[in-house]
Amino acid sequence: MPEAPLLELRALDAFYGDFQALFGISMAVAPGQVAAVIGANGAGKSTLLKTIAGLIAAPSRDAVVFGGEPIGGLPAHGVVGRGIALVPEGRRLFSSLSVEENLLIGGRTRRPGPWSLEAVYGFFPVLAERRHTPATALSGGQQQMVAIGRALMSNPRLLLCDEISLGLAPVIVRDIYARLPALAAQGTAMVIVEQDVSQALAAADHVFCLREGRVVLEDTARALTREAVAAAYFGV
Amino acid sequence: MEWINAIVQGVLLGGLYGLFAAGLSLIFGVMRLVNIAHGDLIVLAAYLALVVTQALGIGPLPSLLLVVPLMAVIGYGLQRLLLNRALGDDLLPPLLVTFGLSVIIQNGLLEVFSADSRRLQAGAIETAALPLGGGLAIGVLPLLQFGVAVAAIAGLQLLSWRTPLGRAFRATADDPEVARLMGLDNRHVFALAMALSLAVVALAGVFLAVRTNFDPAIGPARLIFGFEAVIIGGLGSLWGTLAGGVLLGVAQSIGAQIDPGWQILAGHLLFLLVLAVRPEGLFPRLRG
Questions:
Q1: ipTM over 0.85 threshold
Q2: Which residue of B has its CA nearest to A154?
Q3: B165: domain CATH number?
Q4: B134 lies in some domain
Q5: For chain B, where are the alpha helices, taking DSSP H only?
Q6: What is the nearest CA distance from A28 to chain B, expressed in angstroms?
Q7: Is B74 a member of any domain?
Q8: Residue of B nearest to A78 (CA)
Q9: What domain range includes position B109?
Q10: B126-181 pLDDT, tens per residue?
């Protein structure tokens, strides 16, 4: 019998005012699974993560089900308490807070779990050395580590990562992606939005391709061919 | 010696202006809200102290024990019920709402208390002075007022940089959307900031009411002094706000020393000078 999904989206729509950005998205993510969402600019990837995280209100409570509980439409500060954390696109660290303060505020709504200040410093040792530095004074890669650490501090069951490779050198991206399997091994499920398709395919168990707000391709990462991804990605 | 005395009195007056400005600065810093009703809320606190002192038969300084928490509660409610609805990307709606609030407070006070001038009597402390020698003396009440201003601003500074609530204020000010992802309910955070602001306003209102006559119409001038202190000191800096208040107080005091009619004008001229030469203020964003 297949494992009950941790996250289930049921015909999820999302709107910016009158503009509809997502059309009937359905997907499921199991505990510990890494799902990648790929697609061109404007496909709705970030909107999808923001809707799951509660930054954009889902039209109905049942459209987002997490751990068996309908959470669609809950505000973001309520969603994080359920165990969903978002690493936002562009990192968006708090500029007036130090590295440590950024991590501490990430742990403001903590669930029981393995992540603490010391655990994050153990995971990203370079941050321990810079703990009192203003967070936005770090290099791009280190800032991304703070952003991921800040999300982990709430001990999420589901980590949403929005374009974590954006603006980073390839070697830094590889370093960050190399650490993700350790998170999954601890049982943390992940949904990764990524424009770097090869990186996403390498990191994920399951892949969803979005185009114009709709899922146009869904399969296991292993089963997908480069041609199938290209066809879905560009609609050709 | 007269000039030294004028400067000392100006510094002490500056403490009151620092109190006027601190709440204004806090609110602007946390939620980018320019509170046009700030001066009228100071006057509201003064009237609240008047009611408390008359009802309980206590002095204005003990009345702070009631007036400060009452104003904090009013601040929390005001933010939750009214101001949060006006906040958004556009700065204009909160500006208009607080302008309307200013008109409502002034007229409400006029209706209840009439246009008569009032003053709170603090007793012997009003005339007590510490002689410094050479004909110079410092009033105990202005000194107390300055000490309270320094303590209030030090408290706000400590809260901002050393407590989880201060961290929440700064995070929400930096990026309200991402702050929500950290589990912060912005509406609650903003309301706490307004509660804190009005607690400081309560201090300012009571000291104002002891120092000078007040009536329902004097709020807008207090708002201008507060604005001037914030701009002179530098946006986003609480100690800078106190320094701005002190400079404004000294300028007014020196102006009055030259000619009594120049008191207010001298403060405005200093404000214009700072705006022209250093528009970011003299001490912008000092860290704790």
A1: yes
A2: B182
A3: 1.10.3470
A4: no
A5: 2-31, 38-56, 60-78, 84-86, 92-113, 140-162, 164-174, 176-181, 186-211, 219-233, 238-258, 263-277
A6: 22
A7: yes
A8: B183
A9: 2-123+154-277
A10: 889 998 887 788 999 999 999 999 999 999 999 999 999 999 999 999 999 999 99
